[in-house]
Specification:
Strand order of the largest sheet: 7-6-5-8-9
CATH topology of the largest domain: Rossmann fold
Number of strands: 9
Distance between the termini: 21 Å
Number of helices: 11
Number of domains: 2
Strand content: 5-15%
Largest sheet: 5 strands, parallel
CATH architecture of the largest domain: 3-Layer(aba) Sandwich
Order of helices and strands: HEHEHEHEHEHEHEHEHHEH
CATH class of the largest domain: Alpha Beta
Low-confidence stretches: none
Shape: globular
Structural class: alpha/beta
Mean pLDDT: 95
CATH superfamily of the largest domain: Aspartate/ornithine carbamoyltransferase
Bound molecules: phosphoric acid mono(formamide)ester
Length: 310
């Protein structure tokens, strides 16, 4: 019997039980990679990236290669027919003729949803504008579970660009479904978390949160500090970007006030917001997130293609 086509556009498209299963699969891939080497044989992933990426695109490509599949890529919107005015809907219909699954990054919010509505194969949102980035959240969740041994009863500080930071929006939505979470939202006034995320994910669920502009005042209370980049590409005005870009710079000095078991996370790329000197601190987890992202994307591809390892 043919399985229905399923896409992942928002992290809330996956139930907490499915997230657990994906993390368990990722752990099994880490422990027994040889079981998965042929799992996607004869399958093709189309990586459609209409916005720059290093980690997400390459980790999707590495994931498909490690599953024994093949990859078709658009790495530059200007070199695709989008530059001639082709719609996202037509692109999705076209790529459905060539590939078995799509990972799409696009600068416009909602583009991946449009693709999913028009494709006849699963679509994974690899980041749509300032909206959401569910597979980064998969990487984040596995990292938190591996570092802390749990996804509940955590005080999570999110720092930087909370307005346009799609990774932050997806992570709050995901974590808001676990017990005992407390969020500390650290940002300049101009880059506060949008009301729609605050209302839907936090207020509607009665989840405690506080807002501050002062990282150093709260760093000692945190189990996790999730730093983010102020994103030049989301600003309409260069002056505003220049004024806000270095609002927060995490240094070894500032980390002296933090708990010894703090986990410092960042979706990357970073610019200035974490000093390179922090990389040697055992609390720095951001390159672990990068690797975990590949395993979670492998697990997600398998799930959406209804494939099992050998
Ligand atoms: N975290 C992340 O999405 O990185 P890239 O923009 O390099 O894909």
């Amino acid at each position: 019997m043919t399985q229905p086509v399923r896409s992942v556009i928002d992290i809330l498209d996956l139930s907490p039980e499915e997230l657990d299963r994906l993390m368990d699969t990722a752990e099994d891939i880490i422990a027994r990679p040889e079981r998965y080497r042929e799992a996607c044989r004869y399958k093709k992933l189309a990586a459609l990236f209409f916005e720059p990426s290093t980690r997400t695109r390459l980790s999707f490509e590495a994931a498909m290669h490690e599953l024994g599949g093949a990859v078709l890529s658009v790495t530059d919107a200007a070199a695709s027919s989008a530059a001639k005015g082709e719609s996202v809907a037509d692109t999705a219909k076209t790529v459905s003729c060539y590939a078995d699954i799509i990972a799409m990054r696009h600068p416009k919010e909602g583009a991946a949803l449009v693709a999913a509505r028009n494709a006849s194969i699963p679509v994974i949102n690899a980041g749509d504008g300032g909206h959401c980035h569910p597979t980064q959240t998969l990487a984040d969740l596995l990292t938190i579970r591996r570092e802390k041994g749990r996804l509940s009863n955590l005080t999570v500080g999110l720092c930087g660009d909370l307005k346009f930071g799609r990774t932050v929006h997806s992570l709050i939505n995901a974590l808001s479904r676990y017990e005992g979470l407390n969020f500390v939202l650290i940002s300049p006034e101009e880059l506060k978390l949008p009301s729609y995320v605050k209302n839907d994910a936090l207020k509607a669920r009665g989840i405690p949160y506080s807002q501050t502009t002062d990282l150093e005042a709260v760093i000692g209370n945190l189990d996790i500090l999730y730093m983010t980049r102020v994103q030049r590409e989301r600003f309409f005005n260069e002056e505003d970007y220049l004024r806000l870009k270095d609002s927060y710079i995490l240094t070894p000095e500032k980390l002296k006030k933090a708990r010894p078991d703090l986990s410092v996370m960042h979706p990357l790329p970073r610019v200035n917001e974490i000093s390179v000197a922090v990389d040697d601190d055992p609390r720095a987890c951001y390159f672990k997130q990068v690797l975990n992202g590949k395993y979670m994307r492998m697990a997600l591809i398998l799930m959406l293609l209804n494939l099992q390892p050998a």
